[in-house]
Amino acid sequence: MIRNLSTLVALRNTEVERLQTEMAEKTSLRERYQKNLERLTGLYTNSGASGNLPLALAGNCGDYKQAVMQMADNHRLDLHMHEADMAVSQRALNAAWVKREVLDKVLTKQQQAAQRQHNALERKQHDELATQLWFRGQK
């Protein structure tokens, strides 16, 4: 029973570690999304005013700003979808962690019960030996 519980705890531990690794990767990806959004925002805000340019350049500059803004909006949407996926993964990680903790507590209780049983058996054997020695000393 204890060996089976130990195996289950080890499996749950592996699952928790896998989910933690997955969350770390997703966190890294979220940070990349955020840095890219900052860069894209910087690109269209720092491109300057298009009203002061000749008509052809102003049109090109406006088209550029719109394209970069659209790209940033798409990136924001992707970031929100990724953050939703991260929330689902975080809930899965929390659930796996709770399952592991519950199994670990059950395993600890089983081990303590087995240890108490072993200690009681050992005390009983010592008492029997002491009783036998006492009886031999009485003869």
Share of residues in strands:
under 5%
The counted number of beta strands is 0
Low-confidence spans? none
Question: How much helicity do the residues have?
Answer: over 70%
Average pLDDT taken over every residue? 91
- The global form is rod-shaped
What structural class results from the helix and strand content?
Answer: mainly alpha
Largest sheet: none
Regarding quaternary structure, what we see is: single chain
Q: From the alpha-carbon coordinates, what is the Rg to the nearest angstrom?
A: 33 Å
Q: DSSP helix count? A: 2
Essential attributes:
139 residues, mainly alpha, 2 helices, rod-shaped
Explain how this protein is built.
This protein has about 140 residues and is an all-alpha fold. The protein is about 90% helix and about 0% strand. The chain has two helices and no strands. It has helices at about 1-45, 55-139. Helix 1 (about 1-45) packs antiparallel against helix 2. It is rod-shaped.
